[in-house]
Protein 1
Amino acid sequence: VGRARLPEANSLIWSTEIVIGIVVPAAAGLFASLADPAVVLAADAATYLVSAALLTRIGTDLDPTARAVSHVRADIAEGLRFLWRQPVIRTMSLTGFGLNLAGGGASGLLVVHADKVLGLTPPDRRVGLLYSAAAVGGLAAAVLLPRAARTLGAGKVSILAYTLFVLA
């Protein structure tokens, strides 16, 4: 897409992922609350079969040779050395890792929160909506990101976004 359109392209990728993150949990929560558990499990199993069928369509050999694995290790080591020598990229990468770790922990505790604090039981369809609600803010951020980056600059937007994430 070129450097000039990178924020818009990145926003499109994240927006698509987030929309899926909104729709699928809501639909799954509704489906689980309306359908027989055996049907829900059969549908889940069917998605794995579809995934397996799609994986068979990959037209390349996925069995790495020892030389390819050695090459990948060397590439990873080179990338890590580069990362460590770049203070801005290193800081942003480590910060991103911490945010993803915290986000994963918060997401994992969402079910506990739904049960203990909100009193939502597993068959309650609002559990799916709770997961969808968590993605709505992400969608808004992905849509607003390109304009904010053009107006304020990527650095300021990153600092602001990290601060808002911590507060949230």
Note: The two ends are 32 Å apart (CA to CA).
Protein 2
Amino acid sequence: IRVNLIGTFNVLEAARPGRARVLFMSTCMVYDRATTPEGIGEDHPTKPASPYAASKLSGEALTLSYFHAYGLPTTVVRPFNTYGPFQRSVGEGGVVAIFTRLSLAGETLRIYGDGTQTRDLLYATDCARFVCDALLSDAATGRILNAGTGADVSVNDLAAAVEPDPARIVHVEHIHPQSEIAVLRCDPREAERVLGWRPEVTLEDGLGRVRAWMAERMAAGIPIK
């Protein structure tokens, strides 16, 4: 709340006198699960299942209120599960980074729950292009836009793609089952229509890039965080 709501209010107030563009970086975690083959579009029902998601949804509403109330050029973006080099691989890090570090270290990959939950994994450079395009586009002001690939992968399949030895993949009890979204699959068509944006990096290529980057750092003795 301190960062995502009060901090956002401070940014919006600072931007208002000069009518500076503001982009609010939200999250796909504000959505309810996908129920159609097309995936989650911007008009999909929201269901914040964690205080983090609730704070992001609140920040979205505040950001858009400045567009409607003051004409401030604001945009809200909801990237799906972004991954890439430099992502945290411990604690609350990303699943790709965590799995890759464990695989390279010869350790066991742990999957929370049954592993059938899915994620739409967006490579960092694709996400960066999307954010820049959305921030600089007049057509995006006053809008909410999703960014994703339009294809989801189960955590089970992701683990198998990262670690070839199935004996090193185990399932454990979920620590926060109430906040898990069973199906996360983006419908990115609106971003393509408004911005002309579409993802370029495939999951196979992205996983390979992360593994190569992490292996190089580990070989050089650089700590992976």
Note: Strands lie at 22-25, 74-79, 81-83, 109-112, 118-119, 121-123, 144-147, 153-154, 169-172.
Protein 3
Amino acid sequence: MGVFKKVKNYWPLIKSLQTALLVLTGLAGYVSARCPVNNLTIIAGLIGSLFLTVSGSTILNMVWDRDIDAKMKRTSHRPLPQGHIDAGEAWKVGLGISILGLAWAATLDVLFAVVVFAGLFIDVVIYTIWLKRRTAWSILWGGISGGMPILAGRVLGMGSIDEIGILFMVGILFWIPTHILTFSIKYADDYAAADIPTFPSTHGVNQTRLIVAASSLFSAVSILVSGILLDLTMGYLRLIVVLAIGLTGMAIGTIFNASERINLGLFKYASLFMMTSMFMVILGAR
């Protein structure tokens, strides 16, 4: 198999958009410490180590979940269920680039590497291998894992874990349910076919929408308070406020209007909210 085709087959395994968003949060965490962004060695190390570690953990998750992916229409076309990539090879690649990313992180700062490792361990071992097939509450651990890159970035900039880093992590933790639960409502039949417990299947769609609304509010408040503590200028804070009102408003709106269009709109807007908020932190903290 040629190198181009190999890369083409592996690219979907890293979930590039999701990985890019997590790396962006890590960069925002670092810049929030008002560290010099012209240190290309540190910036390249931050981005590179996070990209490799997040990509590696995602590949490992894909290998472990290949059997349930084969049962869901949404994921059955992925390279592993289709047999385009050998599972043993993918496992080695995922483990290899994860180790490479962690080693790179360790050259920058030991505590930074520890936080990055914690994110990988929680994501692969606790969330995917241990809890995902057992309980819908596994998404809490997925949320904690998702919050590790921004905490790691903040740690790299500050040299320690502080309250703003924790608030950032909490913001991501509560953002994850908005992102995932709207998805699990839309693809409820797929998750049922794969026998994966989700909040819609175990607690009902109405209660799930209440959880989404509450988590959206907590996420928005956490990100906004972080911005206030960072002393961002009012222009950037105002935009975060507008985005936060939009997120919570749409989430509350799904309680009263259960249409698939509104649900899908919230799913897409949640990503826009997080991405734009991170850019506001990066621009406002410089």
Note: The longest helix spans residues 40-64.
